[in-house]
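[#protein-structures] MJ: dropping Response regulator transcription factor here for a structure pass
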Amino acid sequence: MNTRHSILIVDDDDGLGSVLAAQLSEGAAYRVERATTLALAEEVLGRSEGRINIVLLDVNLPDGDGREFCAALRKKGLAIPIIIMTGSHDEDDVIRGLDAGANDYVAKPFRIGELKARVRAQLRLFENSEDVVFDIGPYVFRPANKQLFEPKTGQRIHLTEKETAILKYLYRAGGQPVERDVLLHEVWGYHASVTTHTLETHIYRLRQKIEPGQGRAGILLTEGGGYCLNPNV
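AK: finished. structure tokens for Response regulator transcription factor:
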């Protein structure tokens, strides 16, 4: 399970783009993709199958205005966080960017530490929204749709509400084992009639759906008195 987030940097300033990419990917913190035009950015987003988690978008690009591009992306239904970057400190510019659908707005020159903090804040907010998309093993996981999508094959796996809740909670555990009692409480709440057998049945059915090896545990592991998502796939 790769829990790293992917960032798309859209800026035609090669120097700034290179520095940002190096700083953000340092220590394998983020996967970084770059685009120097709006056309290239649209291409990257189109083929990403939901794997881009946040966009850093410059205002002035060779083929258009970043704010107009942001507004167009929102009209198409793109919900991931967008942070607009600009050389202007003018309040009207900030308002235009936010009105276009940007989540945040940073003026150049900015401090990389502050930018990283803003990125983390936007990702935290987004991960608690209904529009969030996760990577789990070979799948793109869309909790709002109760669905896993396998980009290589085009396979779509439909999940029940409980299966969706189990995967979402395990993903947020970051590869750490979650005890059965904790998972029962988080997914089912306090219900006297619900036992660990109920959970084990759901785990079994979930494995039948998502494990490529005839249900053998490779993605969804039994570990530490509970379950976790394999951090190495």
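MJ: nice. Residues 5-127 form a domain with the Rossmann fold fold (CATH 3.40.50.2300).
AK: one more thing. The mean pLDDT is 88.
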